[in-house]
C-alpha cells in the first residue's frame, strides 16, 4: 500500500513539473485556406491577384505578409492559365515571407504540381487570425478550409466588391473616380447549391452587394468590415474599406465559389478566424485548476503515507 502511494505521489509531482505550454501549442495545419482556380483566364491585360495573411505566434505577437501576383490575360504574349495562376500565388507567398525573420514565418504554401490550386496553412505554434484574398483578374475561385466546414472551424467571411480602377493606376494619372460597374455579372455558389447570379452593369458596388445579400439566404449586408482593413502591399494592392460588404457567419457549408465577370470590378474575400487568444486564456485557467487539483491530490497521498509510516 505504501509503495503504491509513493508511486502515485511521484507521478503526480511529475505531472506538475511538466511544461504547461502544451495547452497553448498549435499544431501545424490546423488552420488552412484552400483556393482553387477554376476555368481559363478571360480578362485581358495584366491584373492583380493577392493574398494577405495575418497570423499569431501562440498567444503572443502577430505577423502579416502579403503575396502579390500579376495575372496575364489571353491577349498577352504569355497568357496565364488556371494552373499558372495558382503557381504564381504560391511563389508570391514565399517571396513575401522572405522579408520576415525565419522564426516568425508562421505559414506555408503548397501547390501540387500542374494543379490549379494552392493551400495556405499554419506552421506549428502559429495560428491564423485573418486572411484577405484580392482578385482583380475576374477568375472563378473556390475557397474552402480543406475538409472542415466554415461553421465547424468557427471561420466567418465576407465578400466585398471593389472598383478595379481604384487600384489600377498611380494617383497622378488616375481617371475620375468610378461610381458604376461597366457591365457583366457575378455568380456565387455555396457548396453545390443553386448558383446566385447578379447583373452588375450600371450598378455601384453597394447596390450589387445588397442584391447579393438579399438573394443569398445565408448572407447579410454589413456597413462594417468583418476584419480590420489591411494596407498590405501598398496602394497598388489595397484600398480603404468602402463601407459595404456581404457577410457569412456560422455558415454550415464547406466551400464558396465566386465567379466575377466584369472587368471594371474586383472582389475581396475576407476570412476571420477564431480568437485563439481568448481560447488560450480559458485554457490557461483550466491548466492552473488542473495543476491545483494535482497538488491537492499529491498532498492527500503524502499525508496518508506520512501518517502510515509514523
Q: What gross morphology would you assign? A: elongated
Mean pLDDT: 85
Taking Cα atoms only, what radius of gyration do you get, to the nearest Å? 25 Å
Q: CA-to-CA gap between the ends? A: 15 Å
Largest sheet: 7 strands, antiparallel
Order of helices and strands: HEEEHEEEEEHEEHEEEEH
Strand order of the largest sheet: 4-5-1-7-13-9-10
Please count the helical segments: 5
Give the helix proportion (percent range). 25-40%
Low-confidence stretches: 17-23, 278-286
Structural class: alpha+beta
Give the DSSP E fraction (strand runs of 2 or more residues). 25-35%
Number of strands: 14
Descriptive report:
With 310 residues, the chain is α+β, with helices and mostly antiparallel strands. It is built from 5 helices and 14 strands. It has helices at residues 2-17, 82-97, 165-168, 205-215, 276-309; strands at residues 32-38, 46-57, 62-72, 107-110, 117-122, 126-135, 140-144, 156-163, 185-190, 196-199, 220-222, 245-248, 255-261, 265-272. The strands form 2 sheets. The protein has a 7-stranded antiparallel beta sheet, with helices on one face. The chain has a 7-stranded antiparallel beta sheet with strand order 3-2-6-14-8-12-11. A hairpin with a 5-residue loop joins strand 9 and strand 10 (196-199). The protein is elongated and about 90 Å long.
Amino acid at each position: 500500500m505504501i509503495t503504491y502511494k509513493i508511486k502515485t505521489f511521484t507521478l503526480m509531482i511529475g505531472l506538475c513539473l511538466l511544461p504547461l505550454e502544451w495547452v497553448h501549442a498549435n499544431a501545424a495545419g490546423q488552420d488552412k485556406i484552400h483556393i482553387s482556380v477554376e476555368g481559363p483566364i478571360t480578362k485581358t491585360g495584366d491584373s492583380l491577384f493577392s493574398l494577405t495573411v495575418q497570423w499569431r505566434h501562440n498567444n503572443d505577437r502577430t505577423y502579416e505578409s502579403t503575396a502579390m501576383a500579376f495575372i496575364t490575360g489571353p491577349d498577352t504574349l504569355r497568357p496565364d492559365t488556371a494552373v499558372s495562376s495558382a503557381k504564381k500565388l504560391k511563389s508570391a507567398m514565399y517571396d513575401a515571407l522572405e522579408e520576415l525573420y525565419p522564426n516568425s514565418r508562421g505559414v506555408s504554401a503548397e501547390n501540387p504540381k500542374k494543379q490549379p490550386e494552392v493551400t495556405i496553412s499554419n506552421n506549428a505554434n502559429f495560428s491564423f487570425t485573418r486572411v484577405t484574398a484580392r482578385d482583380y483578374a475576374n477568375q472563378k475561385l473556390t475557397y474552402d478550409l480543406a475538409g472542415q466546414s466554415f461553421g465547424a472551424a468557427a471561420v466567418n467571411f465576407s465578400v466585398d466588391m471593389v472598383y478595379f480602377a481604384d487600384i489600377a493606376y498611380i494617383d497622378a494619372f488616375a481617371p475620375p473616380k468610378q461610381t458604376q460597374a461597366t457591365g457583366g455579372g457575378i455568380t456565387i455558389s455555396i457548396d453545390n447549391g443553386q448558383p446566385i447570379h447578379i447583373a452588375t452593369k450600371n450598378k455601384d458596388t453597394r447596390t450589387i452587394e445588397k442584391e447579393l445579400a438579399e438573394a443569398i439566404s445565408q448572407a447579410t449586408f454589413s456597413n462594417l468590415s468583418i476584419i480590420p482593413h489591411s494596407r498590405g502591399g501598398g496602394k497598388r494592392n489595397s484600398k480603404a474599406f468602402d463601407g459595404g460588404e456581404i457577410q457569412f457567419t456560422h455558415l454550415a457549408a464547406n466551400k464558396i465559389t465566386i465567379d466575377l465577370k466584369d472587368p471594371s470590378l474586383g472582389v475581396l474575400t475576407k476570412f476571420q478566424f477564431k480568437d485563439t487568444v481568448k481560447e488560450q486564456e480559458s485554457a490557461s485557467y483550466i491548466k492552473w485548476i488542473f495543476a491545483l487539483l494535482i497538488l491537492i491530490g499529491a498532498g492527500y497521498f503524502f499525508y496518508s503515507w506520512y501518517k502510515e509510516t509514523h
